[in-house]
Prior knowledge:
The protein is an alpha/beta fold and 352 residues long. The protein folds into 2 domains: 5-261, Aldolase class I (TIM Barrel, Alpha-Beta Barrel); 272-347, Glutaredoxin (3-Layer(aba) Sandwich), CATH 3.40.30. It is built from 12 helices and 13 strands. It has helices spanning 25-28, 38-51, 73-88, 106-114, 129-134, 141-153, 171-184, 201-207, 216-232, 263-282, 296-303, 308-316; strands at residues 5-10, 59-64, 94-99, 117-125, 157-164, 188-193, 196-197, 237-240, 254-256, 289-294, 321-326, 334-339, 342-347. Strands 1-2-3-4-5-6-8 form a 7-stranded parallel beta sheet. It has a 4-stranded mixed beta sheet with strand order 11-10-12-13. It has a two-stranded antiparallel ribbon with strand order 7-9. It starts with a strand and ends in a 5-residue tail after the last strand.
Amino acid sequence: MDSPxxxxxxxxxxxxxxxxxxxxxHITAGSPQPPPTxxxxxxxxxxxxxxxxxxxxxxxxxxxxxxxxxxxxxAQAALxxxxxxxxxxxxxxxxxxxxxxxxxxxxxxQFLRTAxxxxxxxxxxxLVDAVLEKSRRGYTAADVVRTVTRLKTKGFAxxxxxxxxxxxEDGAAFAETVRRAVALQPDMVRLHPTxxxxxxxxxxxxxxxxxxxLSLEDTLAACRxxxxxxESAGIPVIRLGxxxxxxxxxxxxxxxxxxxxxxxxxVEESIAGEMAARLLAALPVRRRTVxxxxxxxLAAHLKGRKKAQLETLQKDFxxxxxxxxxxxxSPGDVLTLTVGDRTERTGRWGPL
Length: 352
């Protein structure tokens, strides 16, 4: 299903009871702006509709950054009023907010529903207590489970924000977070790598040698694992990687970590590479020219940047040549390999 067109409103740090060790929202959310008036918000919605080249099924206003329900009720009402007005006029079809799992109770949920909020995204980050403690999040995995369950019971669509490579998190801990997140059956998930930003406590730990960020390759492997688990459970991953801001690209802002402005593309390329390697290992291909056939997007991911992935496959499998044919009628998650008169096919996560 097509994703909605999101009209973002950033409220960095607002409502946050503490500052997490990795957080610098002035970098990740950009320069703070005053919340829009109803008239300004209407103009923003119409401009966004005009710019988009697709026809989204829904338009939603989203409050990102900060802890929305950590604000006092009057401040929440002031932020929501222009959005609610746009909802009532039919300019948008939904409002979503993001918050912490320990900052929303039954009364807060009822207030949000009355204001027209139907989606609540929870900044869980991890579902392993030891990792949450090292990141000084101030809540437990049980709090996340309790909050998501409560919101689902009340009819809200729910989202989970998860991070990869937090302090104290190894591969087993991240796999446990993914397993528990799948069990919660949220309506959507966002995955973000842990980056070391200037001006954070994590930066101090990094400089002191007390924190080592994941490499890009380890991050790609973790993302592949998570995507496979969530997609297999029918849970869409609506964001993979951080949203790049001009502030983030300034020199000396990202001190370390697996930063990539197109992380999802890199993950998809690595998945396509695994699919190709699986097929090449199944047929006698040494010193032969092989032909891959795929839908346009999968074909592009298979080639990689400047066809670098094809060159790697040719070298690793001692191929005479590698060709890629684009077939728009091919399923988007199926890759076909032809060698002479033999053909093999594979799906995104394994043999068909």
